[in-house]
Structure formats: C-alpha cells, structure tokens
Amino acid sequence: MHTWAIISQKGGQGKTTLATGFAVEAARDGAAVVILDTDDRQGTASYWENARATDDVTVVNTGIAVLPLNLAKAEKGQADLVIIDTPANSRDIATEAARAADFVLIPVVPRAFDIASVLQTVKQIKQEGTPFAVVLSQVKHTGSEADDTAASFVDMGVVVLATRLHDRKDFSNAVGLGQAATEYDPKGKAAAELRAAFDEVKRLSDFATKRAKRGAT
Predict the structure, then answer these.
(1) What DSSP state is assigned to residue 143?
(2) Which 8-state DSSP code applies to residue 30?
(3) Helix/strand/coil (H/E/C) assignment for every residue in 70-81
(4) For a designed S-S bond to 149, which of 23, 77, 83, 110 qualifies (C-beta 3.0 to 4.6 A apart)?
(5) Separation CA 115–CA 110 (nearest Å)
C-alpha cells in the first residue's frame, strides 16, 4: 500500500480538489483507492463522495486519534493507494499525516500571504523527513507571481511540480458534482493539468497504479 498526504496549513489551496482528482485517476488506472478525510469541520471529500455517482473511490472520515487504525484497515482491505486529505490550521494532523505518508504534496496558491503560511508547512514536513513536493494551484493566467513563487521554492531546495493547476472553473464545478476535472470535461485544459500533475506525483513517489503489477511481484 502506498500513502500520499496533501497538506497545507493555509485553507483554500485546493487540497481536496487534488485528493479527489488523484483518487479518480488512480482508480481509473485500476488501483483500489481510499481517501482519509481528516477535516472534521468541513469534510469536503465526504461531501464529494456523497455527490458521486460511482463507488470506485472510498472516503473514510477519520480523526487524528484513529488515523493509524484507519490506515491499517485500508491496508488490510488491500488498498493500493491511500490519500490523506488534511484540514487547514491543524499542525497535529499535518504532523501525523506526514509521518504516515510515503509522499507529501503541498499545494500553494502563488499569493504573498499564502506563500508565507505555506513556508511553515514546508518546514514542518522537512522536520518529519518525508519526501515532498510543492504544486502551484489556482494560478492566474497573467502575471509573474507563479514564476516568482516557483523560483523561491527552488532556491530553498524544494521540489516544485512542472505542472501548474490554473484558476479554472472546471476544478470547482467537478468537485461539486462528485467528479474530477478529467470526468467533468475530459478534453479540457483542467483535465490535462490534473492528469499531468498526477503523473508527476506518481513518478516522484515511485507509485505504480496498476494492481496487476502488485500481484505479479
């Protein structure tokens, strides 16, 4: 079983959009996928599952105290990929999620006040020693903020995905319908960005989605 955690102490960075989008892509590739929704206040991933027309992705609500138990249940249930969707402003959950994960993805909206907050998340993940990368999300179609933000993280020795998720309505529209952008408009630009980001994270985390590969080893 492979575990990804999507972490940011700042709200509104697109964590659940990534968690659900990646889950759909992994399931489409034949993986058994579980999202652990650790946000007991909003539970956006759980709302997404309720709106979803298919049961190819399982969402489990979990608090910090039972996170290890739910990870063990997922492994016992032969999950191939667990994605931990974390809330904002919860250092304890972020720490536990980073410790449990094989790889952490930190979404960042390239705005000055968001970047300052995310720097604390980067520091926290570095302390845990879990491999991680930053992905720029809700990127505006004009301006140099994304380039400047990416350069700043690279200067700090942080891996930044080459793929950027731009500010596109397809992302939010899809989540509201219990879908991923790749389902909402498979040929759209948001879908292409989501697929590219998923492929990058697979490569960086050394995750093979095909269940046949696991069974053949």
Answers:
(1) S
(2) T
(3) HHHHHHHCCCCE
(4) 110
(5) 6
Q: Following DSSP, what letter does each residue of 157-194 receive, concatenated? A: T--B-S---B--HHHHHHHHTT--HHHH-TTSHHHHHH
Angle, in degrees to the nearest 10, between helices 67-76 and 91-100: 30
**Please, which pLDDT band fits residue 120 given cuts at 50, 70 and 90?**
confident
What is the token pair recorded at 98? 């980073």
Tell the CATH superfamily of the 2-106+168-207 domain: P-loop containing nucleotide triphosphate hydrolases (3.40.50.300)
- Helix or strand (DSSP H, E) at 3: strand 2-6
Asked if residues 110 and 60 have their Cβ atoms less than 8 Å apart, the reply is: no
Contact 196, 35 (CB under 8 A): no
Determine the 3-state secondary structure of 87 from DSSP. coil
* pLDDT at res. 213: 42
Lowest pLDDT segment from 44-53, 84-93, 157-166, 173-182: 84-93
Q: Are 171 and 165 spatial neighbours (Cβ–Cβ below 8 Å)?
A: yes
pLDDT in tens, 85-119: 998 777 888 889 999 999 999 999 998 777 777 88
Average pLDDT over residues 69-73: 95
Cβ proximity of 34 and 82 under 8 Å:
yes
